[in-house]
Amino acid sequence: MKSTLFILTFLVSGWLYAQPSVIPLYEETAPGSEQWSREEGYLENSSWNTPIVYNVRKPTLTVYRPEPGKANGTALVICPGGGFYALSIQSEGIRVAEWLTKKGVTCFVLKYRLVQTGSPDPSAEMNRLMGTPEFQQKTGEVIPLAIADGRAAIRYVRAHANEFGLLPGRIGIMGFSAGGTVAAAALFNYTAENKPDFAAPVYPFFPRGMQGKIAPDAPPVFIAAASDDQLGLAPHSMDLYNSWLSAKKPAELHLYAKGGHGFGMRKQNLPSDEWISRFSEWLQMQGLLDKPRYNPAFSLFEVKEFKSATGQVLPYRILFPENYDAAKKYPLFLFLHGAGERGTDNEKQLTHGASLFLKAENRKNYPAFIVFPQCPQESFWAASRIDRSVQPPRFELDYSGEANSPLKAANELVQQMVREGTADPERIYIGGLSMGGMGTFESVFRYPGLYAAAMPICGGGDTKMYDKRVRGTSFRIFHGAADAVVDVRLSQEMVTILKKLKVPVRYHEYPGVNHNSWDNAFAEPDFLEWIFGIRKKKK
User: Fold this and answer.
1) What is the pLDDT of residues 414-427, one digit of tens each?
2) What is the pTM of this model?
3) At 394, is the pLDDT very low, low, confident or very high (cuts 50, 70, 90)?
4) 209-236 burial string, b = 16+ CB within 10 Å, else e?
5) Mind giving me the DSSP string for 489-504?
6) In CATH, 296-532 is 3.90.180.10
7) Are 512 and 483 in contact (CB under 8 A)?
8) Going by CATH, does the domain composed of 35-285 fall within 3.40.50.1820?
C-alpha cells in the first residue's frame, strides 16, 4: 500500500510540475488600457489555419518549466505574432516553449495587449484591413502598449529569477512578426531591470525608423526570416542585423530562400523548418544551454557586476578575505579565465583556479580579495588575431590599438578598488590562463605600475610593444612544452624580452605537458607564497 501511495504521489507531483502556470503581468489594470472591456477570446480554427488568442487586455505570462533536474538557469520570454490583432499562440508560442524546455530553458509565453475587436475571426479582419488607414491607426495605438508589456515581462522574470531558479545574465526575449516588434524594441532604451541578456526576433516587423541608439552593452541577437516573406519583412531582419554589425555587436542571421511569413513551428519540408535547431545551436554557443557546474563552495565568491566608464557591464565573482575587517587594506588578485569559460552565467570563470583560493590554509595564510571577472562569449581578453588553419593556432598579439572592452573593464574594477581604499596599492596582483594569460601580459603593459607581480599561464604577449614601462612588475611564467593550443614559443619569447628589459622573471616549462599546464602551475608548492610575498617596488 505504501509503495502504491508513493508511486501515486510521484506521478501526481510530476503532473503538477508539468502543468504551465499563468501569471498576471500587472497587479492592477494594465496602464493605458483601463477603459477596455472586451473579454479575451480563443479561436481553434482561424483563417490562418492555426489557433489564435484575441482581445487580450490583461497581459499574462504562461510559464513552461523543464523537467525536474533538467533546468539550466536560462529563461526566455516568448512573444507570439499576429499583426497586433491576434496571437498565433500554438505555432509561435506554446510549441516553441515545449521544444525549448527539453533543452533546459524555462519559458514564459507572453500574451501582450492587442487591438480590441468584435470580429468572430480577428485574423480574417486583420487580413482584410492590412495596409489601410484604419489598420495603421488601430495598430499604431496598441504597439506602444505591447512593447511596454514586453519590457514588463523581462522585468518580472528578472525580479523573480530566484523563484524560478534562473541565473544572472541568462534572461532573454524572442518574438515572431508583431511579437518580433516587441522583442526587437526591448533591445533599445532599456534599464537594468528590463534589459534582455539576449534576443531572438524572428521575421520581425521592425522598420529602421523604430530603431534607436545601440547601447555599448547591447546584447547578442539571433535573427531568422525568409526571403519570400509575403509581407515583405525580410529587409527588417537584414536592417537589424546590419545595425548590430555596424555597432560591432554579436549577431547571427539566418535568411532562408523559402519559408514565407509566419513559419513558426509549422513543418513545410523546407530548410526554414530547422530554424529552431539553429537557434538551439546559437544558444549553446553562447553558453546558455550549459547546465551550471555548481560547486557549493563557489557560493563564497559573491556575485557582482561592474559597469565601466564606457558602459561595459562586466560580471564578476569576488572572494573576500576570511574574517574581513573593513578598516584594513588587503592584497588583491585579479584572475583572468580562459576562452572556454566565457559567457554570461557568472560562474564558469571559477572552473579553474577558484578552488585553490578556497582552501582553508590558503584563506588563512593569504587573506586577500580574489576577483574572477567573466569575459563575454563573443569577446577576448587580449587584442589578438588568430589563425586556426595551422597547428597549434597562430596568435598574433597586437597592442597598437585600443584594448578590448572586457579587459578595460576588469582593470578599471581593480583601479576602483584601489581608489576606494579597500585594496592595498602595493599588493595588487594579476594572473590568468590561456586567453587569460594573454590578458595578463597585456594588462601589465597597458596599466604600468598597477601590478606588483603577474603570473601568466600558457599565454603570450606583443613582444614588439613590450618595453621598460613593465619594469615595475615581477613575472612568473608557466607553459607546457607540448601545448597544442597556445604555442610554447609565445611564453619563451616573452621570457626573452623580459630578461632583455631586466625585468625579474621566473619561467617554468613542463616537458610533455599539453595545454592544461595550469594544473602543474597550481601544484607548485610556492605558487601563492611567491606572488603574495611581492610588494610594488618603491620609485
Assistant:
1) 999 999 988 999 99
2) 0.58
3) confident
4) ebbeeebebbbbbbbbbbeebeeebbeb
5) HHHHHHHHHHHHTT--
6) no
7) no
8) yes
